[in-house]
Amino acid sequence: MIWLVRQEFSARGRTASRHVRRAVPAAIALIMVAGCTSVAPTSPSVAPTASAPPTASAESSSLPLDGPVAPGRYRYVVDNSCDDPACPVEGRPPSALDLEITVPAGYATFEGFPVIAVDTVSGTNGPDGGAVVLGWTSFWVGLNSDPCLEVAHERTDISVGLTVDDFVAAVVAHQELDVTEPTDVELGGYQGKFFSLTGPSDISGCDNWRPWDPGFFVQGPDNHWDVWVIDADGFRVLIVTEYFPGTPDDVKSELRDMAESIRFFP
């Protein structure tokens, strides 16, 4: 099991958001599948100019796909495929999206998951650990009206449009999700929306508690997700940092810094 982190962002660069508290089901469950990520919110900025597209830095290298990650600047390709049974057969996804991220010491990747998490060797894995999830939900996503699933994946029953605003509006309108009011943010040179989602305290009655698909599911009781939904030249990408009430402050700070270090290269 890979535990992803819950990160309480200080209001660095943004005003505190008003919580839109919704009723949540009494039972739920854990862990992750298709990825994307979240980044610490920053104040809105001027949209990037349309002159020259950003290019990857020469000092970056490819992110290892499994195992400990040495501190440094890394490239990662966000695959925009959807191979889960819940995904629609129609529609053709756009091409992959490149990004760069700066990773501090003490983190690792895990084969098959687009996640950078606290290295399990460090002993901080679990409900006091944390992670950044990199990229997904670009050409298609659906919401589950009841996130408490009896199996890992079920066909979603709430349709969502293709834009950042479509996705964010659907999440906020969902009566079973505990989310904050979305705010405008900038990440990696592009504009989008930021909100936080808090999972239920009791997840014992679910195989997975999964609010949308493709996407991962809550990693434990009171799992907190900070979600950046960014429009990178028409490519809707989610960056998520997740953490728990017991996550150390230094881990939360590192997760925020990783998220803020992301740059996209459509």
Structure description:
By secondary structure, the protein is mainly β. The protein has one domain (19-47, 61-265). 8% of the residues lie in helices and 31% in strands. The protein contains 2 helices and 19 strands. It has helices at residues 164-173, 249-260, and strands at residues 19-20, 61-62, 67-69, 72-78, 97-103, 107-110, 113-118, 131-134, 142-143, 148-149, 158-159, 178-180, 183-187, 190-198, 208-209, 212-213, 224-232, 235-243, 263-265. The strands form 4 sheets. Strands 1, 3, 6, 7, 8, 12, 13, 14, 17 and 18 form a 10-stranded antiparallel β-sheet that branches. Strand 13 (183-187) and strand 14 (190-198) form a beta hairpin. It starts with 18 loop residues before the first strand and ends with a strand. Mean pLDDT is 76; it is low at 1-52.
Give a nutshell description of this structure.
It contains two helices and 19 strands. The chain is mostly beta strands. It has one domain.
Q: What are the key terms here?
A:
mainly beta, 4-stranded mixed sheet, disordered N terminus, 19 strands, 8% helix, 10-stranded antiparallel sheet, single chain, 266 residues
